[in-house]
Structure formats: C-alpha cells, structure tokens
Design goal:
The structure holds three protein chains of three kinds.
Chain A: H1 19-34, H2 38-60, H3 63-80, H4 90-110, H5 118-121, H6 142-145, H7 149-161, H8 164-175, H9 180-187, H10 191-212
Chain B: H1 10-17, H2 23-32, H3 35-59, H4 65-73, H5 89-111, E1 119-126, E2 128-136, E3 144-152
Antiparallel strand pairs in B: 2-3
Chain C: H1 3-18, E1 26-39, E2 51-52, H2 60-63, E3 71-85, E4 90-93, E5 99-108, E6 117-124, E7 131-139, E8 143-151, E9 154-163
Parallel strand pairs in C: 2-3
Antiparallel strand pairs in C: 1-3, 1-9, 4-5, 5-6, 6-7, 8-9
Classes of the chains: A mainly alpha, B alpha+beta, C mainly beta.
C-alpha cells in the first residue's frame, strides 16, 4: 500500500453546479409536462437517464436489471406526473421512484431479502473492525483506477457484499452527491438513519477493500 | 458512530466530508484537524473518487432513446384514485398460471418454444410515431419478445412519416 | 396384421409430437385485443397485484414486464381468429374504430431451424392520416406484440400469433 500523502487533500463540500438555474429549468419542464407537453417530459428523462441508471445499477449491481428498472421507473414517472406536487425537486422524486422500483425488483425477481432495518442491515459489520472510519488509503488515483481492471473487480466484489440499503446510500451520496435531506426524501427515512447507514456503508466498504488488497482492516492491527 | 481514539468523531468528520456542516462548524473542525483525522478524510475522499469513477464507467453508453421516444408519443397520464384491493383474484390467477404453464410445457416438450423475436423489416407511420422495443423472453433466455410500439394520434393530424 | 397399422399410427403420432408445425399456404392467426388501463400513479411502496383478465393469463409473463408494468389492469376486449392465406389481407375493426389488417406476405422456407418463419404485414388505420404499416418476420407460433394506441385512458395491446391451426 502506498504511503498516504501528508498534505491535506480534504474533500471540499459538494457544491451543486448552477443548482438554482437547474432547478428552475426542471420546474419549468415539469410544469409543461404536467400540462400535457410530452416533449418536455422526454427532455427531463433524457437529462436524468444516466443518473437514474446509475442509481438503479448502484443498488442492483446488474446492468440488465438496472435497464429494466429504469424503463419501469420512466413509465411510472410518466403516469404519476399528474400527482407530482412539485414540492420536491424532480430528480429526487425520480430517484425515489427508481429506488422503490429497484427494491420491488429485488423482492420479486430474485427473492432477495431487502433489509432496510438498520439494526440488521448494520449487522453485516459484525466481524469487521470494531472501530470507525479507516485512516488508510488504498493509494489509487481514481482517474487511473478506471483502467485498473483488478481494482474494478475488487470494487465490484466489495459492493456486492453490501446490503441494497447500504449500496443505495453510497450511490446517492458518493456518486450522485445528494444532501442528507435529499437522501432522506428519496429513501423515505430520517436524516439520522441516512447518516448511520452512510457511516456503516463506508466503514464496510473500506474494510472490504482493504481486505481485497491484502491489508488488515483498521483497528485489528492498531 | 463515534470514535474514541480521536478528538474528532466519525460523525463530525463524515458531516464535514459531506458538506453538511455550517460555515462556523466547518471552521471549527478545520482548526481541530489532526494527522489521523486528515488521513480518515483522505480515505473517505479516495472511496468517493473510486465509486464515482466506477459508476461513470458503468454508465457510459447508457441510452434509453427508444423508451423515451415511446413515452413522448404516449398520451399524457391522467391522475386516478388508488385502486381497491381485490381478493380472490390471486387464487384464480395462480390456478390460471398453473394451467397456462402446463399448456406451455406440453408445447415446449412437443417442439420447443417458438421464438417471439421478430425481425422488423419496415416500420412506417403517419400521424404518430413508432419504435421497436424488446423485452426478455422467459422461455428463450437468449432471446427477446418484440413489441412494435406505435402511438397513433386519435384525431386526424399532420402525417410525420418515417421509415425504419 | 394389426401391429403394422398400429405401429404406423404410433409413428405418425410421435412425428406429430416431435415435429414443429408444418408450413402451409393457409394459417390461422389469433389476434388478442387487450386494454391496458389504470395507469400506475403511486410513486411509493410496493405495487398491488395487477388485475389480469383470466382469459389472457397465458400472456401474464409479457404483460407484467416493462413497459406494461406502468398499467395495472389488462382486459381482453376482443379475440379474432383469422384464416390467413398468403397474399390475402384479413381485416377487422379495433375497439378504437381503427381497422387492423393482417397479411401473410410469405411463408419462408425451412432453413433447418425448429420452426418455420413467417413474413407478416400489419397495418393499422390503413388509408387514414394516422396509420401504421409494418413488416416483420417471426417464427410460426411466435407471439408479436403491438402496443401504444391510446384508448379509454390507457392503451391497446395486440397480441398476434399465427400457426397452421394448432394455436401456440
């Protein structure tokens, strides 16, 4: 493992690019779509199709299933648009539909237990390190990691070890950059629950990746 | 969720990392960052980078053009009251599914199931739009069932034409 | 010698059971006209069990998949059985008053596969400003779905399957 840099690379808080403009644009498109302008709704779907797929695939870890879920989510959004009150942002509403369809998909198609009870979901940490977030890095440049097949496979295996609930919060926060409140709206739980899930998901991922890299999880050798 | 080995809790570090602290709290955290806290933040940062890169690679090439086209051409949805639950349908459906399954099995054993995958050679539409969708075929795992989706306007309109 | 005719009969029966439907100039096509309605509007929670007309339960596996999962009721409005002769169009009127026309364009020669192939033409609203004309090739006995025509706050789904008489 590479020695972590001692210079600070502390993550800056996420800043939504042109968020206000983006929201106004979405709101206008939603208004048009609700009045029957199907092209406006199509524009919204095209804008978010990749992000919706990212959320679905992040939970399901199966590209084909994610495609099915996205199609279903798009149709459900289309049919539910008249009941969309506009209180939430369009993309959080769309994510909410996608997460629900993905969970239903897991329940129906695979018979997989979708555990969203945190006492149980967090129980997957049993046997892992008893401490908190890891101070160890894997030492990979994220950009170069794109070409690192072995790392991608390790990452995939680790993600599949997580519960769907943990995968959901990871993709919503780390990939999509949603705020805690937005995540709580999407998943339908409290901010406290989101923070707890996020903490356990991150800790679990770090432990799994360190184990994949042959490193002893933090806390064990401390 | 707290960490006792450092004077900055995991909870605080996580919220700092996620940009969920107020400006005052951020300054406070930054003034208290020690070496290990920085390492933990860097590890979180690395995880985020890895997940974003991984997701970006998986999402490249995602295209739902055909389904979005079909949605655009479909009639706007009308809000409806939630449906009432119906009992008895489940058992009837289960029986029907069993009967249908037995029927399908008979023909499968006889000659194997015919494919539902149509090769659409031409698709011409006026006064609407059409596209070809494919859904997985449970009977033929490597094949699909073809849906020719056409949203023809109910009232006579200007023909748009088009050929696949 | 009773055994010989019996053996021949058994042999013929085995061949009938083993062989795919034979090609011919004359086909029987079944077109099921289904109304998909009660569009899903609830964005939350597990969806209730869709209501499927028992007469089309054999289509359950198709109608419970996207894109049809956006509707919760599926009712068989009509079922047409058409005697289709190569090159001769067969027409009937759909519940939305559009005329559907099905034509067997060509019965394709056996290429060694399990099933014969059919080149079919489907026309909807022929001669009207809003029309569809499509030509497709599918296995004899295979099912092709046409959907999307608006009707009664939902859509129409046409399920078409053709064979030499024994419906698949």
């Amino acid at each position: 493992m590479q020695t972590p840099s001692t210079t600070s690379t502390v993550a800056a808080p996420p800043v939504a690019p042109d968020a206000a403009m983006d929201r106004a644009d979405d709101a206008a498109l939603v208004t048009r779509a609700r009045s029957g302008d199907q092209a406006a709704f199509g524009k919204l779907l095209r804008k978010y199709e990749r992000r919706v797929f990212s959320v679905a695939n992040g939970i399901l870890r199966n590209v084909d299933d994610a495609r099915d879920v996205c199609q279903e989510a798009f149709w459900k959004a289309h049919n539910a648009l008249a009941s969309f009150d506009g209180q939430a942002q369009f993309f959080t509403w769309m994510y909410r539909i996608t997460v629900n369809v993905a969970i239903d998909h897991l329940r129906k198609r695979r018979g997989e237990r979708v555990e969203f009870d945190d006492a149980r979901a967090n129980g997957e940490d049993e046997g892992a390190d008893p401490n908190g977030l890891s101070p160890r890095r894997l030492g990979f440049d994220p950009v170069r990691a794109l070409e690192d097949r072995e790392l991608r496979e390790q990452l995939e295996r680790a993600l599949k070890e997580l519960s769907p609930a943990h995968r959901a919060v990871l993709v919503l926060r780390e990939v999509e950059g949603l705020a805690y409140q937005e995540m709580a709206d999407v998943v339908g739980c409290s901010i406290g629950t989101i923070m707890s899930r996020l903490f356990h998901a991150r800790k679990r991922m770090q432990s799994l990746l360190l184990a994949e890299r042959g490193e002893v999880p933090v806390g064990v050798d401390a | 969720m707290t960490r006792t080995s450092s004077h900055l809790s995991d909870d605080l570090l996580q919220r700092y990392h996620d940009g969920e602290l107020s400006a005052v709290d951020r300054v406070d955290v930054e003034s208290r960052l020690d070496g290990e806290s920085r390492l933990r933040l860097e590890a979180l940062d690395e995880l985020r980078g890895l997940l974003r890169t991984h997701s970006a690679a998986e999402c490249s090439g995602v295209d739902f053009a055909s389904i979005i086209d079909a949605i655009e051409k479909s009639p706007p949805a009308v809000a409806k009251a939630p449906p009432r639950k119906r009992r008895g349908l489940v058992s009837l459906s289960a029986f029907s599914a069993f009967a249908a399954g037995a029927f399908a099995l008979f023909f499968f054993l006889r000659s194997g199931p015919p494919s539902n995958e149509a090769a659409v050679e031409s698709l011409e539409v006026s006064g609407g739009s059409a596209t070809v969708l494919r859904m997985p075929d449970d009977r033929n795992p490597n094949q699909t069932t073809t849906i020719i989706w056409a949203s023809l306007e109910e009232e006579p309109g200007q023909g748009t034409g088009g050929t696949l | 010698m009773i055994r010989t005719p019996l053996a021949l009969c058994l042999g013929a029966l085995c061949l009938w059971l083993a062989a795919p439907a034979q090609a011919g100039e004359h086909l029987v096509c079944t077109v099921r006209v289904i109304q998909a309605g009660d569009a899903v509007t609830a964005a939350q929670g597990t969806e209730p069990v869709p209501k499927l007309d028992p007469r089309i339960d054999r289509l359950r596996s198709f109608l419970l998949k996207p894109p049809f999962t956006a509707w919760r009721t599926f009712e068989l409005l009509d079922s047409k059985t058409l005697d289709v002769v190569e090159g001769v169009p067969q027409s009937f009127t759909l519940p939305n008053q559009k005329v559907a026309t099905l034509t067997l364009v060509q019965h394709l020669p056996d290429t060694g596969g399990k099933h014969h192939r059919l080149r079919m033409q489907l026309e909807l609203g022929k001669g009207t400003p809003n029309s569809l004309k499509t030509v497709f090739v599918i296995d004899e006995g295979g099912l092709v779905l046409q959907a999307g025509q608006p009707h009664r706050h939902g859509i129409l789904v046409l399920g078409t399957s053709c064979n030499d008489g024994a419906e698949h």
